[in-house]
Every structure is written in structure tokens, then in C-alpha cells.
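Exam prep: given the inputs below (a chain plus pyridoxal-5'-phosphate), describe the expected output before reading on.
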Amino acid sequence: MSQIIYADCNGSHPPLQEVKEYLQKRLQGPFANPNALHGPGRNLHAALEKSRAVIANYLGAKNEQVIFTSGSTEAINSVFHGIMPYAREERRHYLVLSAVEHPAVLEAAKKYESQGFSVKIVKVNHQGIIDAEELQDLLKKIGSKVALVAIMAANNETGVLQPYEEIARLCQKFTVPFLCDTTQLIGKLPFNFEKSEIDFAVMSAHKIGGLPGSGVLLVKRPTSLDPMIQGGGQEHGHRSGTQNYLGIECMAMALHVSQEKLAKAKELEESKLRFEKIIKERFKKVTIIGEESPRLPGTTAISYQGIHGQAVQIELESHGVFVTTSSACGDNEPFTSHVLKAMHYSDDVGRGVVRVSFSNHSDFHNYEKITETLSQAYKKLSPIGHF
Ligand code: PLP
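Solution:
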């Protein structure tokens, strides 16, 4: 098989070359408990704090606002868990979410819904963007009873960007805490926690070319959160458990390299738009999801109406191109994802979506190969592909 193209950077980004080289050397040691008082422990603690300072600096946060976690899912769950005492005390029983959130947010909200909280969903338009006016009207009505607003910065399936700074300002106006799922944004586009006015932001190292199993929760006022994980009091008691210091050092390295590569975002986006334009010209039945919205520079969710995404994925894979579908598959029957449903796409389009996701680190010439491979796949599948 010729060269392999991995086009699932939104799913998990392979570790960057710099991270692999760092890790290879780093595996020679030292190893110790970074919270121990002996010499090796103190040295590792210093390295951990250096990583924290690097990460805080790149994300526009203060060192004490950075809490290390195992990734975004844990960070998101920590926020839901952590605000509960305050929510109950102040009788704030609404959770406000967008319709296109990641399951980490949706399922956490569902848990508290089963414990008496009411979940309000803010709709998105056909282009995948929330209606800020609807949110404002909602907060005007029930703002004093809202425990948390959770709206993502960038959608994992479509790459559509929400106006998260405007949402943060609205939440501030109504004094409602705002959790912004920044998992897909960080490392791909500039982000500054302090300027954004967000209360809680999250990241997963493996989405930016670090290692799986490490991540960050950024908290404007860390004392405002009840810790979800109890134990030895690490992370100033905000998240107990010995820190994954190797993962954290690699995460700092990945973020450092990603910051340097942010300048590539424009070029990446131009390559993506060229690819999308050619495919649309060749195939009139193709839809680019969220095409008219601001999107992540390297994300395309594309559908050929009537052809199953899984069939396209398999065809591409046979040519060494790895993409994902957005629809999950139950009993071999593909269904339209909640994100595409919320954007009012029919099943005919929704079941057809494949996601091509690259990053600023990718070889942009990959788009040329994908253009040809996808064209061949659509040509092959179109006479037989109707549902
Ligand atoms: N939020 C978004 C938008 C994501 O894309 C993901 C991962 O796919 C997560 C949260 C959860 O990240 P992790 O699985 O690394 O905890």
C-alpha cells in the first residue's frame, strides 16, 4: 500500500515528533513521586511546576488556575460535580447546554437531571451556531436559577465555532458560571483564557499531539469548585491522585510546538477550502456541513446524499486514507448523529457524513490525495449507494 494518510486529528492527534523525541530521552529517568519531599521528588515537582507555567502562559491563565486532569472528559465532569454545592445552596436548578455538545457534557448533565436539575437546550441553526439572542432571553428569564451554562468553542464533528467570547460576556452579565468545552479549539486556533472571560475551560493532550491520559481544567476561581476526586490532596486539593508527570511534560511540549504552528492555520484552511471546492464542483450531491460558519481550519464534515458514510470510510481505508464517520452505527444501521440532527439535516445527508480532520502539523499536500481518493470512492459508490 502506498503512503498512509491519517485524517482523524480531531479524534486523536498522533504524538508530535518533538514529543516522541522528548519522551524517548525522558524515559531514561528520573522517576519519582513529584509530591514527595526527597530530592528526586522535589526535582520532579519543579519540572511539573515548570510545565504548569508553560501551559498557563500559552493558554493565557495564571499558574494556579491550571489543574491537571486525565483529559477533557474528567475536567468537564469535575466542573459539573464541583459546582453542585453552590448550585444547591443558591437554589440554581437549571443546566443550560447547546444541542451540539460532546457526550462528556450531555451525559454529565443527564446525571444531574436524574437528581432533580432541569436541562435547557439552546438550539443551533442549520449552520450549527447557537442563537445568542435565544440564550440571552433564556438568561433574562431564569438567569438567577442557572447553575451552569455549558457551550463548546468548536464542535468535534463539524468544526463549527461558537461565539464563545460573546457567550462568556452574556454569562457574566447574568452572573452565571460558563463552562466552555475548548478541547477542539486549543492548539488549532489562538486561545486566551483570561481574555475570553470563560469560567471553566478544558483540554486533552492527545488532541494536540501530546499523549493520551493527560489534560487540563482551567478554572477562573479554583476555590469555587468542590473537588470530584478525593485523596492525597495533590493539585492543592482540587484533584487528588499522583500527577501523570510524563504526560504533563509531553503536554507542555505539544502545546509549545502547537503555538509555534498556529501561523499555519490560514494555509491549512486554504488547502481545505480548495479540496472542498473541487469535490463540490465534481459532485453536485455533496454537502459540506456548516460550510457558511466559521470553522476549525482543518475540519471538513462532508456528505454525499444517499451514500452511507461507513461505505465511504471503508473505501478510503482500502486506499490508506483514515477518516471517521459522524454517525454511530447501531445494529449495522447507521443513524444521524445528534449534532447533525440539531442542525436539521435529513438522514439522507446525516448518514452520509465523513469527517476529514487535519491540524496545523499535517502535510497539507494530503488534501490532494484525499481529493482524488474521495472522488474515486464517490464515483464507485454512487450508482449503488442509495438508502
Ligand atoms: N470534548 C470534545 C469537543 C471532544 O472532541 C472530546 C474528545 O473527542 C472530548 C470532549 C473528550 O476528550 P477525552 O476523550 O480526551 O477526555
